[in-house]
Amino acid sequence: MAETDQFAKGMKLLIDGEVHNVLDRKLKTQGRQGGLIILKLKNLTTGNTLEKTVKAGTKLDAIELETKEMQYLYSNDSGVFFMDMETYETVSIPSKVLGDYSKFLKEGEKILTMLHEGKVVNIRENPTVDLKVVEAAPAVKGDTANNALKEVVTETGYKVQVPMFVEKGDVVRINTDSGLYMNRV
């Protein structure tokens, strides 16, 4: 059990039998009545985001998720599929839970998954990924005067704006939070 003053971004809470990730925590004071804590939570089972207001001093179940390395196989409209490296069993996570992060996953890549009671609920996201450029238009001479950008397609199909000097075959580093180009690797 954790009290409201211990809640932090990234903490996992068990609410009504479902695992929630704390995205944000705000304190709201109300004079004599005491404080209220406004939690922005993401349900790791459904991917839905919700706000929950609790009184200061309230206790909620904080949990630690087990981590296990799995291999990314593929994704489609119904979910993202991984293979357990020990049992060769295929497990899936709803696409809504991973959101835009599934655009950065490479086939065959090893990913740390988070499990609760033996069930995969989410993955550990990396802050940056390195992806190979598979399609890039050539730079137009004279179009480099003021930070000109062009769109390229990476090996995962993700499209990103990059500087003109990036060419097909280059590896680029992308910030997974913003989805923006950081640098060439």
Please characterize this protein's 3D structure.
It is a single chain. This protein has one helix at 95-98, and strands spanning 2-3, 12-15, 18-29, 35-43, 49-55, 59-63, 66-75, 80-84, 90-93, 110-116, 119-123, 128-136, 149-154, 159-163, 171-175, 181-184. The protein has 185 residues and is mainly beta. It folds into three domains: 2-63, SH3 type barrels (Roll), CATH 2.30.30.30; 66-123, OB fold (Dihydrolipoamide Acetyltransferase, E2P) (Beta Barrel); 128-184, OB fold (Dihydrolipoamide Acetyltransferase, E2P), CATH 2.40.50. The strands form three sheets. Strands 1-6-2-3-4-5 form a six-stranded antiparallel β-sheet, with no helix packed on it. The protein is flat.
Spans with pLDDT under 50 lasting ≥5 residues?
none
Within the CATH hierarchy, at the fold level, what is the topology of the largest domain? SH3 type barrels
Q: Give helix and strand order, one letter per element, not per position.
A: EEEEEEEEEHEEEEEEE
Backbone structural class: mainly beta
Oligomeric grouping of the chains: single chain
- As laid out across the biggest beta sheet, the strand order is 1-6-2-3-4-5
Radius of gyration: 21 Å
Approximate shape: flat
Task: Give the second-level CATH assignment, the architecture of the largest domain.
Answer: Roll
Domain tally? 3
Number of strands: 16
The major sheet is characterized as: 6 strands, antiparallel
> What's the average pLDDT?
86
Distance between the termini: 44 Å
Annotation field: number of helices: 1
- What amount of the residues lies in strands? over 45%
Q: Percent of residues in helical segments?
A: under 10%
Give the class-level CATH name of the largest domain: Mainly Beta
